[in-house]
Amino acid sequence: MTTPQNQAPSDAEASAVVGNEGQGSSDQPAPLVPAVPHGAFLGFDEHGRPEPAVAAGEAGTLLGFLEFQRATFRWRTQGLTDEQLRRTVDGHASTMSLGGMLKHLAFVEFFWFEVTALGRPTTQPWVDVDWDADPDWDWHSADQDGADELRALWEESVAKSQAIVTDLLGDDEAAALARTHPAWGGAQDVSLRWILTHMIKEYARHNGHADLLREQIDGQTGE
User: Fold this and answer.
1) Beta-bridge partner residues of 189
2) What's the rounded Cα separation, in Å, for the pair 180 and 178?
3) For the chain, what is the domain count?
4) CA torsion angle 172 175 178 184 (round to 10)
5) Are 221 and 87 in contact (CB under 8 A)?
6) Which CATH number belongs to the domain containing residue 124 in this structure?
7) Is residue 64, in this structure, part of any structural domain at all?
8) What's this model's pTM, rounded to 2 decimal places?
9) Where is this region: Disordered (predicted)?
């Protein structure tokens, strides 16, 4: 389904896309988005990614770009086998893999939205990890997980993050974006605005890595 660029999808259209999540081809995954939050989207592109609105309010603009980056990452990791997700860059010392990236970004979602913004971390496996023993456990442990398990872990983390942000924004977006939350064990306070901006940066950075890894695996390219 492609929605004209100057026309936002209806709630029914957006819900239909989300409702088909996981059933599309590897080239056109359904986007991980709720039904048009805060006027964030114009429509969906040919890969099923939500196009950020060009004149939304602050919350809508931030959410629009974050959801686009999330959907881009899902497209890059869709349809790959266990072995393909474990593949690293040929001829390079880096141990980064798409599977490690899936687990890392699932943790990043947990850390910034459940730990920091909500302040009530409960989700496994994160709360029982001995991070002192292995600060990069999210990356290192991914090789022990299957492709479906890794994708499900990331998708569940994204869904929880979306629900937390929706609840926090409530009816007063400006106040919610400005409200601060203790981060890094109380070392600093960060606003929800900062968290959303940081997450856009985090995904954009790793999507660049994912571009290289996916093209090496099967030649897939695209913005």
Assistant:
1) 182
2) 6
3) 1
4) -80
5) no
6) 1.20.120.450
7) yes
8) 0.83
9) 1-32
